[in-house]
Amino acid sequence: MLGIIQFISISCGIVLSFFPDEYDRAAHNWLPSVDSASADTKHWPTDVSRDIIPVGCHSHNDYWRRVPLYSALQAGCVGVEADVWLFDDELYVGHTTSSLTPRRTLRSMYVDPLVAILERQNPITDFQPGANSPAHGVFDTDPGQSLLLLIDFKTAGPETWYAVSKHLGPLRDRGYLTHFNGEELIQGPITVIGTGNTPFNLVTANTTYRDIFFDAPLDRLVDEDPDQSAYTQQNLEMVSRDTNTQSTNLGQGQSGMPAVITANTFNSTNSFYASVSFQKAIGFPWPFHFTQHQMALIRRHVRVAHRQGLKVRYWALPSWPRSLRNHIWRVLAQEGVDVLNVDDLVGATKGDWNTEVFDWWP
Ligand SMILES: *[C@@H]1O[C@H](CO)[C@@H](O)[C@H](O)[C@H]1NC(C)=O
Ligand SMILES: *[C@@H]1O[C@H](CO)[C@@H](O)[C@H](O)[C@H]1NC(C)=O
Fold it and tell me: What stretch or stretches form a coiled coil here (predicted)?
């Protein structure tokens, strides 16, 4: 749908964590060009990303970078992720409530900078009086590549939904968002995916226009194969458990679910990723090998998600020891998993990464 996201994982997050200065220095290249309103004699109108080749990586907890967003773009990451918290109609970006500050908002850190970058990428000049159609993306070397903006709703789903949708207005109004128009998917330079408490019922409420796509629960996708009835039963039990819970923090792929999930509930008209915690759904491969049961589960995940046009993403992968991590990455790549997130970088062994991390860059 949006071009192939190569297997990759791992976050530019990891790379950027270990080489922060280099990338942050590079990121400064973006800042002045974004600030200057128009092209001048020293710069081509669109040279903001001239030397950058996009790679299939995802900048996890992107806002931890000293220069969020720009560091990831400079590294060529096609995906960035922001955790958002709703307080008094403002969406603050941060990992926990204690890390929030008034100036770090979805608008100031992502929406406004992206509008500025995209306006520069789609200049109206004497030679090109009309706007590009479709609009060019953030990467000059691959203008058709959409930037994946994963927004993790940390506060209650419905309220946060309306605020996120409203705050995306400047991108929507300029036609920059990938959207579903009731019949087909229209690709734009930015594709927004809601995860965390994003409510599925609100994603699908409007049947003629959608521009926030769901992060479907990979372990709850239903197989068309009737042999899976035992699995469906388990599914229904999970639904009833969810509807009983009073908590507003349900986590990825659990909010606003229909009473019954069928084989066709999640597809590319409403979802982009299908994700699950690797630790929870597959478990630790021990002793250093996946069991047959684990392999069958992984294959089933990839098959049902790809059949529905969704990208498979695992998060909460073990990151240590390194040999185990590499084995897991290799197996998952072979099996067709699209994106891997490694969480808890701080807890992972330190220093161990430097030498091999670039093996994973295409
Ligand atoms: C769906 O969204 C479009 C675009 O925002 C809007 O014009 C339309 O009224 C919405 N439809 C419903 C049923 O809310
Ligand atoms: C996508 O899923 C919705 C239910 O969420 C379903 O009504 C629709 O028919 C599906 N579309 C396709 C093309 O499969």
Answer: none
d(CA 8, CA 121): 26
Neighbours of 225 (CB within 10 A): 12
Among 33-47, 145-159, 248-262, 325-339, whose mean pLDDT is lowest?
Answer: 33-47
Helix axes 292-307, 322-335, angle to 10 degrees: 40
CA of 207 to the centre of ligand 1 (A): 8
Ligand nearest to the CA of 221: 2
Tell me which residue has tokens 């458990």: 241
Best CA proximity match to 97, nearest among 115, 116, 83: 83
Q: How far apart are CA 278 and CA 341, in angstroms?
A: 10
Vertex 157 angle, CA 156 and 159, to 5°: 75
* CATH number corresponding to 54-124+132-360: 3.20.20.190
Indicate whether residue 206 lines ligand 1 (CB < 6 A): yes
**Bridge partners, residue 314, by sequence:** 276, 340
Q: Which two tokens stand for residue 55?
A: 């790679």
Q: Give me the phi and psi of 59, to 5 degrees please.
A: -90, 95
Tens digits of per-residue pLDDT, 260-295? 999 999 999 999 999 999 999 999 887 778 999 999
